[in-house]
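User: Can you help me understand a structure? I only have the sequence.
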Amino acid sequence: RGRLIDFREHLDTYDIAGSTFDKRLRGVKAMVRYWIDAELCARVTYDDLARVKQKNEPIEDRVWLTPKQCQKVLEAALRHDREMVERKSGTALRFPSIAPFTMYVLLSGARASEARALDWSHVDLDALNVNLEKVGVVTVPIAVSKTKKRREIGLQETPSLRRLLRALQLQSGGAKGPVWDLTEWQVKHSRYRMIDEYGSPEHSLQQLRVTCDSYLNNSPGIYGGAAAFMAGKRLGHSVAISEKYYAGQIRGISSELRTLEEVLGIEKQCDQIIRSVTDASRGRASVSRIAASK
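Assistant: Let's start by predicting it. Here is the structure, written out as tokens:
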């Protein structure tokens, strides 16, 4: 009994939403009920389980960022990265570049854990569409996917994302392995610095994903009448989730806007991030040539 209470108190120390707290607690209580039924927990009864209360908080509404806020997030990420380059003094940076990662999460709609686990083996920048045009695709394998279902994130809707990954690929020299050299701590605290020091609006990685989902569901020029299905397929949830939380939430998006970058008005910021990656690659190449000549 004491351990059940201790577990609840331990779970309460995590910075998670009330609905997530209840979901995890329900899982543990279901497991304990099974043990009680199997007579494996003689000292624990259903009454004991009933005393371990859930929070029963309402599920919060999905809050997306406006195009102006998206622009400010990416601009803050760029300022953060520029300052980190200026502070570099021959040692490994405590806070590496965060703008490319932020742009990836916003445009792909990937979950934070899926984005951090992105590997070059998951990326095919030469994948063709039905017209035999190279558009690119990112695969989220079963081992990485939260839902344990393989899915694909097409890059035709986000051509800037394909250009970013191409620039990162050139920067890595065709290396294999993880795309990002980022720890969860670095991602978290870089975001805090963006908000506290560089003028970014308050946001979370989950909010970037919600923003991607919301605009894909409501942009007639991207998926047309299949928006609920295609957005859900891209982000890894059901059509029912699209219809319940996202469809019809944003109105007035022009049907002439064909890419997510255009819808969010972040083409300029995406170009700047891609240019920063390209410039960094050229700088490293120059240093290598100088070192080789010596």
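Now, to help you interpret it: Residues 157 and 259 are 5 Å apart (CA to CA). The longest helix spans residues 267-293. Let me know which part you'd like to focus on.
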